[in-house]
Amino acid sequence: GIVVDGRLRTSAEHIAAAGDCTGGQQFTHLAGFQAFVALRNLVLPLNDSAEALVPRVTFTDPEVGHVGLTEEEHKKKHGSKAKVSAARRSRPPQPNHHAR
Q1: Dihedral sign, CA of 91, 96, 97, 100?
Q2: Which of 24, 43, 70, 82 could form a disulfide with 78 if both were Cys (CB 3.0 to 4.6 A apart)?
């Protein structure tokens, strides 16, 4: 992937990269958010980070949603004593009457 800093800038100060080419998580909505942050940082005198908590979902049955760091990322960043929790749905999902 293309190496970028936390503001999505490459080693060439006037060039940024976003999305799958940066080697991070490959989610369409995350790429869109990264593109927004990269463009804003290039055009405006901002230093916004692209490392926000962007929710993501894997469309399986049942669907799997995530937000924040993985357990491995959390322990690497905060040490082995870090507490990690997961929420699980206790009842089956109800039919979505809006879906066709």
Answers
A1: negative
A2: 82
